[in-house]
Structures are given as structure tokens and as C-alpha cells.
């Protein structure tokens, strides 16, 4: 599923299930990403990280005309300098966000203004899960009152998803049926 607005500025969102996590995607990871991938003990955690990193690289590569493995990704935290921060592509004006929960991985890319995406499994109260997805999407977009947060169509049974972007932008979110093709390059 891709959620986008074809007129700039735009927010595009890709969602995939762990069934699309193919170990061949490791060839797209840089050494730091490979180290992080290998640090996860759980196969599901490895799959979520691998799929999120590959989807991000594929989305950016399609946008800027690069092969996924050539897309430079910087995850240095702005607060502490550790390599766990919001993903950025040096030299690009793209804004990116990645989220994963349960069987789902989501990547959001905005051409103008901050963006935050959150996907969560519903564990008890749907209202509490929706509130949390809104909070996390807002946080990932940098926080502040100048953000709009949208609940998005249910991506998978038992999951919720939300996206945040600046209020002063003209971003409209609509659904379409395009796919992010992994491993077809």
C-alpha cells in the first residue's frame, strides 16, 4: 500500500509485512546497518530491521535515481550522537520515518517538512493504541503544535497506523495501490 499526494509537497507511505523480508536484502545494508541487523537475537526483530532499512533505501533510491545499496543513510542521534536517530539522507531534502510492530513495517517519506509514521499492534484498548500511534507519529516528526496527525486506513488486522506532518503544509493523504518493489533491480 502506498499513501501519497502526487502534487508537491507530498508524503508517501509504504507498508509491508514480514513475509517480504528476504535475506537477500542484506546486500543493500551498509556496514553499520549490517552490524545492527546482526545484533538482534530474535529472527522477527532482525526481519523488521532488515525490511525497514531496505524499504527506506528503495523508496529514497526511486525518488533520487540511485540504487538502494548506494543510498547514504545517516542515523546519528541529534541528542547523543549514537547511531539510533531519525534516518536522514545527507545532501537530500527528503524527510524520513520508519516504524514497525508485529508483522508490519512502515516507511514514510516527505518531500517538504518533517514527517513521522507509527504503526502499532492493538494489544488491549483500540482507543489507547490510537492515542499512542498519534503521540509517536508526532514525536517522530519532531513534536510541536504545528503538526497534523492523521489515522490511516487499517494496514493489517489488529494494527493501527498514524502519520504526522506540518500544519502549514499542503499535504493531503490519499490511498493508492502502488508497491515498493524489493529485489526487482
Provide a concise account of the structure shown.
The chain has 185 residues and is α+β, with helices and mostly antiparallel strands. It contains 3 helices and 8 strands.
Polypeptide structure, described:
With 185 residues, this protein is of the alpha+beta class. It has one domain: Ribosomal Protein L22, Chain A, CATH 3.90.470. 25% of the residues lie in helices and 25% in strands. It is built from three helices and eight strands; from the N terminus they run ββααβββαβββ. Strand 6 and strand 7 form a beta hairpin. The longest helix is centred in the first third of the chain and has 22 residues.
**What global shape is seen?**
globular
- Domain module tally: 1
Give the neighbour order of strands across the main sheet.
3-4-2-1-8
Mean pLDDT: 85
Describe the oligomeric state of these chains in a short phrase. single chain
Radius of gyration: 15 Å
InterPro entries: 4-PPantetheinyl_Trfase_dom_sf
Protein name: 4'-phosphopantetheinyl transferase
Element layout with pairings:
Layout lengths: L1 E3 L6 E7 L13 H9 L3 H22 L30 E7 L2 E7 L5 E6 L4 H15 L6 E5 L7 E8 L7 E3 L9
Antiparallel strand pairs: 1-2, 1-8, 2-4, 3-4, 5-7, 6-7
